[in-house]
């Protein structure tokens, strides 16, 4: 993590001691920030002041330890044109298996099978993030047997852990806007499906297996087929990530084949392999390339940034410094809140903000991030933030200069009161939008992972930094003198 030099910090503290005195005024009019929450104004004892915030953009990099779990939405596809954050792509890894491993042969009597009609990988579709009109090119590969892909492991979202060299489909074009259309299929009427036709020779291979080899047991099947890798091809094409659900009944491998029935007449059948929540492995790799983006142009230095870029896991964050806290004198703090406002961009219509942002503090003594003292309440038994809405994690819609934006107001009143009383030290802050965090409490103890956002991979926002000319990030304090 970047750190300011001692000289810069000393100059900042002196400067903000002067700014703090200059900015204090009596509260005698309706306020734009927190006006519905501050105490009634008596025009005598209640004042407000605004402390400037220094913001520094940072990528999480390898420090992001988020892992995918089968019951979460997984994303495939490619975002090729986000000027703020660059490109993103999603590759899906999964295993689909016979529903039972028993004799006789899985499909029917092998001697009666005539051949494959088609074999289709079907994924349960639930959402699109980005441009639904631009086509995506997808291809399916077989995961190499050398890859350690097992159902008892959880894999990092920001790492590609597997190799795959054998394509088992051609490149197929998918239009996201059509994925919720109804389709009529053999013995099935369905919708919300991503359907990827696989090579018939792969289906023939499955038909040749029987209960003496691949279908003898789950472990035997794994030695014959490790699983599927579904990845985007041509990363300059498409501008969306498509969300799929692995445990959805729509997700399956459909094997359509012809056989001679009991009357010795040619007939057609279908057999499904499905995702088994006990024995099927899964993973989702979200790849970010921020080269040439607005974020890349400002990240990783010690110059305060006018614009701040927050992206969901695998994501970015901003380090926030509020030098005015170091010179804050004793007072009664009625309200202290960090105001964060979206700075709109035309691409926001397709790439929307994440549902939640999160603010925590950096403990320089113990070199760890921790919850904001006093103001964030976590149940240590289940790891849930019990006051997430009151704390201000959910943005709310508003407008600025005639444009719809989202703003966040983080209530850190109790913590700032302790700083004013000199019973707690000033901290630097971190603003982020993680999929989950592993929070540390005031005691330094660590609780179980806490899910901040409902999904990983999607959601990003550009907000004003502390020196933005019209929408600055700022800490406003409403107080009474003692």
Question: How far is it from the N-terminal to the C-terminal residue, by CA?
Answer: 38 Å
Mean pLDDT: 87
Indicate the proportion of strand residues: 35-45%
Largest sheet, in brief, is: 13 strands, antiparallel
Shape: elongated
SS class: mainly beta
Percent in helix? 10-25%
Low-confidence stretches: 1-37
Number of helices: 6
How many beta-strand segments?
A: 32
Describe what you observe in this structure.
With 482 residues, the protein is mainly beta. Helix content is 11%, strand content 39%. The chain has six helices and 32 strands. The protein has helices spanning 6-23, 200-208, 218-224, 294-298, 388-391, 413-420, and strands at 25-26, 46-52, 54-59, 67-68, 74-82, 86-94, 97-98, 113-130, 136-143, 155-156, 164-167, 172-174, 183-185, 188-190, 193-198, 228-233, 239-245, 252-260, 266-274, 282-289, 307-311, 316-321, 332-341, 358-363, 368-370, 396-400, 403-411, 428-432, 436-437, 450-451, 460-464, 474-480. Strands 5, 6, 7, 8, 9, 11, 12, 15, 16, 17, 18, 19 and 20 form a 13-stranded antiparallel sheet that branches. Strand 26 and strand 27 (403-411) form a beta hairpin. It starts with 5 loop residues before the first helix and ends with a strand.
